[in-house]
Write a structure and sequence with these properties.
The chain is α/β, with parallel strands linked by helices. It has one domain: Toll/interleukin-1 receptor homology (TIR) domain (Rossmann fold), CATH 3.40.50.10140. Helix content is 35%, strand content 11%. The strands form 2 sheets. The chain has a 5-stranded parallel sheet with strand order 4-3-5-6-7. A two-stranded antiparallel ribbon has the order 1-2. The termini are far apart.
């Protein structure tokens, strides 16, 4: 890797010991622990995939469905596969009362481009988002800061770009226990952006097995609106229907 990979894997793993920019005494001068090995996960059911889908339950099989958590005035349209894939995420999210809504997980090279665009759109939708460019400051212990961001967020959103695929290919471990816990507890949603679920499956099959979104099938604006609805807490009849 040619640059720093934080906050996705490089600085989570062992606090950044393997980061080519900040590791081994460079950058901010953290202390590090030994990198962890890829954890073993219990088998999880594959997401529902409708015909015509490219893999992760984006917009394939255009039959629409309305999730119980969707506000009555919402204009975005969900596929039946998306509703089924997101139902366990929604059930897990409403149980959490963390300070932040979303932990935005991204490849370091995307921090001032695609990831920044997603962050801006999330904020415009009123979603409290942990994002490296805003939440991290030089001189801080990145490992501790990232762990705090993960534990203080209700769910994780992984922006899977070509740069993210490169990062995952160079480091197949998910070495932060909190990030692993989000994945195991249905609190991690991938968003494919210039990459496919098939490509992700070759590198990170557990992440690829989760139903998510794909900008090849719908706009990022609509995806962000759905994330906003997913973490939104409804009241009255809408909440009771969940």
């Amino acid at each position: 890797m040619s640059g720093c990979t934080a906050p996705v894997l490089g600085h989570i793993r062992g606090g950044g010991a393997d980061c080519p920019v900040h590791g081994r005494g460079g950058g901010y001068g953290y202390s590090y622990s030994e990198p962890q090995r890829y954890p073993s996960y219990p088998s999880a059911p594959a997401p529902v995939r409708s015909s015509g889908s490219s893999g992760g339950g984006g917009g394939g099989g255009r039959r629409s469905a309305r999730p119980s958590w969707q506000p009555s005035g919402s204009s975005v349209s969900y596929t039946a596969a998306q509703v089924r894939n997101l139902e366990p995420v929604r059930a897990a999210v409403v149980e959490r009362t963390q300070q932040q809504d979303v932990f935005l997980c991204h490849a370091w090279p995307d921090r001032q481009a695609d990831a920044k665009d997603v962050y801006d759109q999330l904020v415009e939708q009123g979603v409290a988002t942990w994002f490296s460019e805003v939440s991290l400051r030089p001189g801080t212990d990145m490992r501790i800061a990232i762990e705090k961001g993960l534990t203080s967020s209700r769910m994780g959103l992984v922006l899977v770009t070509p740069e993210m695929l490169k990062t995952l290919k160079n480091d197949r471990s998910v070495a932060n226990s909190e990030l692993s816990a989000l994945l195991r507890r249905n609190l991690l949603v991938p968003v494919m952006h210039g990459a496919t679920f098939e490509e992700l499956d070759q590198i990170a099959p557990m992440l690829a097995s989760r139903g998510g979104f794909d900008t090849a099938e719908e706009s990022m604006q609509d995806i962000v609106a759905k994330i906003s609805e997913l973490v939104g807490v409804l009241i009255g009849e809408e909440a009771a229907a969940l």
